[in-house]
Amino acid sequence: MGLTSWPQKVVLVEVGPRDGLQMEGTFVSTQDKIKLIRYLADAGLPVIQATAFVHPRKVPQMADAEELLAGLGSLPGTLLSALTLNQKGVERACRCKLDIIEVSISASDTHGIRNAGMDFRQALARLDSMVRTAIDCGRRVQASLQCTFGCVYDGPVAIKRVIEAVKAMVDAGADGITLADTTGMADPLQIKKVLEMVLKITGSIPLTLHLHDTRGLGMVNLLAGLEMGLTRFDTAFGGLGGCPFVPGAAGNVPTEDVVNFLSRLGIETGIDVRKVAQCTGRMAGILGHLPQGRLWRVLVPPMKS
Ligand code: ZN
To answer: Is the model's pLDDT at 291 over the cut of 80?
Structure first.
């Protein structure tokens, strides 16, 4: 496929405040999270996943979800989303000010049980009611499938299972669907094979890829998605991120690296790469370690100690 057939514009969904921070041992204060999200909105991120409504004991970093959203208010030009894994999470999200509720289930039984206390069948059985609740409270619903491309516990995920989950998401009335490579096990050929089948089901419902760079294939997987015509990707500033219930988990594809890559391909994102890099630099100070992304090190050289 030639350069000219690639999309002109791509939407990046910033998941750093949720997927990124949930892996961090240092608790980031609610005020610092609010500042971070405002910086990211100012950098031009059109959608920001701000938090998750999950059990505070399981993911302590997300314990301040309600307080965070109340403090944030609305951000002009940026839609706010939050992740939910069960009915209770959706109900909590419905009581808060946010635009998009992400309803997420895992394609893997073991990962699903560790992450949300439900295997694939149990989660799938609850999906419809979760989506319905979010729609009824007037929110856009993003349905997502974790471990789409494999699981560190259960191994390969059958494509049949992915198709079944995506069909259920379409039938439930989701506004958008995300396929997540939670464990970073995907490769470009698998991405293309899965997308080829899934795109036949999703029709006009926009499909997003959520990629982790655990095995160094994040960016080539993103390119495979682009070549299949996708125009939406989840990314995290600095390449932070990972699932606390996936051993060896590594970060998402870094927002600033992806913005730079896309701009080299002539694809617009509307995002100010320098501002995102500054954000990563500031967070490196708060977190006490250097995020794995590359470009921020060039644009905002970290201080040598
Ligand atoms: Zn993730």
So the answer is: yes
